[in-house]
Amino acid sequence: MTFKNAIVRLPSSSLINGLTSASLGKPDYFLALEQHKSYVEALGKSGIDVNVLKEDDMYPDSTFIEDVALCTKEFAVITRPGAESRRGETDGIRKVLEDYFRTIEEIKHPGTLEAGDVMMTGNHFFIGISKRTNLNGADQLIKILQKYGMTGSTIRLDKMLHLKSGASYLENNNMLVSGQLESCRDLESFNRIIVDANESYSANSLWINDTVLVPAGFPETLSKIERAGYRTIILDVSEFRKVDGGLSCLSLRF
To answer: In the chain, what's the furthest Cα-to-Cα distance?
Structure first.
């Protein structure tokens, strides 16, 4: 598929209080702003029209906008984040999405779902069952997908925050995988590009219109992606990594 649009949200100064398990220290807010600007520029270079939303100081993690909605070619789904401190981030996102989509669905209580747990591979969506996404939320999403002739299936996670923390679909049947997903039977039909354990963070790279955005500092992963035939853009996202964020987390793409 080809992405034409992206929605991003500027990081706020409250980013330093974002949820994290990384033990990498507090992010530098001003450096995060610079890194976010470079990210937006990279999206633009890949042929995407980027809608930059203003920062939301009430929600430290709100720059990770991917988690609050799932966007497909035909419709969007407003999620229900598993982290209670992030639930309010969905307020107002409907109004933004209405500029792009006629049909907007919604995950409802008692379901939880963060779109960082949802990986689109053509018309099939893999959904990670994690601490942030439960079976009820996944089942709701699968029923929504089926309404539009799409399918979904679940993968249980026990060692990573989100499904896309450990896997990224690069189109053309190629998929980056790391950790427990290296041997996941559900992903056996793909050409799996194994990410070394010491570079596991780079499993969250991002395909955008035949270009792959790759986090800086992971030469082995970069080499594997380039050997697979992709053009790459290297981006430093060190400050977002400190609060458990990656490249895909920073945008909604459709």
So the answer is: 45
pTM (2 d.p.): 0.97
The answer to whether 36 is a known catalytic residue is no
CB proximity list for 98: less than 8 A, separation 6 or greater? 104
**Angstrom distance (rounded) from CA 36 to CA 48:** 15
Nearest 10 degrees: Cα torsion 160, 164, 165, 170:
140
Give me 60's structure tokens: 């430290």
* Token pair for 244: 């458990």
pLDDT in tens, 19-37: 999 899 999 999 999 999 9
124 flagged as catalytic: no
Q: Which of 36, 71, 184, 249 is catalytic?
A: 249
Provide the residue ranges of all domains of the chain, joining segments of one domain with +. Answer: 5-164+237-253
Q: Under a CB-based contact definition with an 8 Å cutoff, are residues 69 and 51 in contact?
A: no
What is 5-164+237-253's CATH topology? Answer: L-arginine/glycine Amidinotransferase; Chain A (3.75.10)
Burial of 99 per CB tally in 10 Å (0-12, 13-18, 19+): exposed
Among 36, 71, 162, 184, the active-site one is 162
